[in-house]
Amino acid sequence: MVISDAVLTPPISVLSAVSGLKEKVPDLTTDQIVWITVAILVVLFAIQRFGTDKVGYSFAPIILLWLLLIGGVGLYNLIKYDVGVLRSFNPKYIIDYFRRNRKEGWVTLGDILLVFTGTEALFANLGYFSIRSIQLSFSFGLLPSVLLTYIGQAAYLRKHPEHFADIFYRSVPSTLFWPTFILAIAASIIGSQAMISCAFATVSHLQTLSCFPRVRILHTSKRFHGQLYVPEVNLLLCLAACLVTVSFKTTTIIGKAHEICVILVMIITTLLMTIVMLLVWRISIWWIALFFFIYIPIESIYLSSVLYKFTHGPYIPVAMSAVLMMVMIVWHYVHAKRYKYELKHTLSPKRAQELLEHHDLKRVSGVGLFYTELVQGIPPIFPHLIEKIPTIHSVLVFVSIKHLHVPHVDASERFLFRQVEPKEYKVFRCVARYGYRDSLDEEAEGFVHALVESLQYYIRDVSLYSADEMQNVSYPISRDQSLSREKPSGRHAVYAEEMITPIQSFSELTTLSNGLSNRLPQFQASKMNIAELAKIEEEQKFIQRETEKGVVYILGETEVVARPQSSLLKKIVVNYIYSFLRKNFVQGEKMLSIPHGKLLKVGISYEI
């Protein structure tokens, strides 16, 4: 619904601002206003690739001027036309209104939603600003200005009720028209920018959770981490916004469509807040019940009013949301099935050893980075590669990139390693851990350098710890982060033979890892001799030499198809819908910033 909101907010905001031109140019037709709006929308979406960092500093002054202007105009109208409208704060009048209008009064509740649209974006803005700054700006800036604006318009309508259709510009003094018009255009663009950024952030989180096809996510600012740009999503939003503008031409139907976005986002937020209060904050059940039974009934009444006019516009965002939900469900369903298939068909240690020790297997110089989604075991695509090309690199690393439920992972804790037996074949498994706000958009050379450096630390640390010492230490590993039957290293990885106690926090893992690393000197003095230290150094140099000879990125090109005996629905979902999404969105090498000239793709089909 938020992404649908990002489609509707730019058209309704810009179109309503541009329509004010009719006050000064009465001959302007509706179609001309529509095409002016489309031109502004195209420019708005075109500049997204530059990010808000370049022009973001102008946003706050423009919005502040806008709020002061509309608040001042509202106060002017209140004093000039009818101060008596302040009596509307008396709840008696809304009760009288519903008594007088009954069903019609209930139906108009949906239109009232447009009074406070935009407040649903506050939760998205929490990713960019502090809670305190939003509370202060909302309470002392936005709320009083908007209240004065509507109070002033109500006072104006007491004297000029015939101007209800274009009340905003009609109520502005003629001397302030052009400043108001320019600021209205600027404010509508900034408001639209907020919802577009919200859509980008939502898609980024969905992709992290494997609920959305792969898209290219770019970070437009080096200083501010949360500023994202998604080219494919930006193009689709632009096309959808222009199509909505050209199709409906006025804000009437777009406004009706916007209503259901606002109220559904609010209801879903209330439900999620209730869950957070219950399971995370764990506050008194009476406070939770009070919160739930105040907000849900009120929001449900608004929702019922909107649904009464469902065919007059609200069906538009619902249809868009249904398409997005279908994409998310299909992608996640097939992605989970494929992962389980690979997990079920992973190579056993014995089978992996047989493959590596096969007499026909040749070793070539360089380092091979074999990308896989599996955290445990060797993927089934590896023996497929060996069967077709019985050759592997001198150093082979199975790389799995995983996102943790923490904002950031420190670079020193990025990689976890395990060596695959037999050790002389220099085959390793690696998990590269990223937080949900960490960027994967880094050059391949930098990634390789960090990985090789961490691998050298791993070789040193594993050699420094004896088996006796490892048996005397308990290693709390998270289930999501653990690699079964893995040995602990030191500075960059902590492993366990089995999960003994669940980890309480990510910082606990970091502390434990650093603590083990601090014990290295005493182990080194008591357990190692010169020959063993020289052997460690030679292994590290070997890794470095092979890296300098070249790095090849091996990527599995997996085609997923439904089994012949599957149902017709499953065949349609897997063979057609998922296949279409996979082929028409960003491929894996672009997501991982892999140089095209160093890429080796291995094709394989899975029947799920």
TrEMBL record:
GO MF annotation terms: potassium ion transmembrane transporter activity
Q: What is its main location?
A: membrane
Query: Among its keywords, does the record have Coiled coil?
Result: no
From the record, give the transmembrane residue ranges. Answer: 32-50, 57-79, 106-129, 136-156, 176-207, 228-248, 260-281, 288-308, 314-334
Localization (cell) = Membrane
Which Pfam families does the UniProt record give?
Answer: K_trans (PF02705), K_trans_C (PF22776)
> Coiled-coil stretches, from where to where?
none
Q: How does it sit in the membrane?
A: Multi-pass membrane protein
Q: Name one GO cellular component term.
A: membrane
Which residue numbers delimit the K+ potassium transporter C-terminal domain?
365-608
Which key words tag this protein in UniProt? Ion transport, Membrane, Potassium, Potassium transport, Transmembrane, Transmembrane helix, Transport
Q: Where is the K+ potassium transporter integral membrane domain?
A: 1-348
Q: What NCBIfam families does the database record attribute to this sequence?
A: kup (TIGR00794)
Function noted in UniProt: Potassium transporter.
Q: Which family does it belong to?
A: Belongs to the HAK/KUP transporter (TC 2.A.72.3) family.
What name does this protein carry?
A: Potassium transporter
| The organism of origin for this protein | Panicum hallii var. hallii
